[in-house]
Amino acid sequence: MSLEQLDRWWSSLQAGWPFSLRLRPWPVALSLLFLACLATAFGVVATTHATRGQYAELQQLEQERSQLNTEWGQLLLEEGAWSTPARIEQIATQRLGMRIPDVDDVEVIRP
């Protein structure tokens, strides 16, 4: 298609339209503003969704931390109970048959 044919086609196309094909600045500006609002709305929805997901994950991690802190406290109490003198004496008596000597069983050796 030559340039002259393209020009004839364009002028016949303009003659057939009930309105002129001029671009006015305010419809373009309104369209761009509408697209900007649409993009902003999409961004708000996406950010809200991501925030809710992260908040749910935070709650789960805090619950796990609480459970681990409870377990740690129980382990510290158990460790304290295992090392008490009464516990050691009980194990020595039950498992090893050890006992505190009577007064008659004690011999004092002098140098």
Automatic annotation (TrEMBL):
TM regions (residue ranges): 26-46
Function: Essential cell division protein. May link together the upstream cell division proteins, which are predominantly cytoplasmic, with the downstream cell division proteins, which are predominantly periplasmic.
Family of this protein: Belongs to the FtsL family.
UniProt-listed InterPro entries: Cell_div_FtsL
Location in or out of the cell: Cell inner membrane; Cell membrane
Keywords: Cell cycle, Cell division, Cell inner membrane, Cell membrane, Coiled coil, Membrane, Transmembrane, Transmembrane helix
Protein name: Cell division protein FtsL
Membrane topology: Single-pass type II membrane protein
Gene Ontology annotations of biological process type: FtsZ-dependent cytokinesis
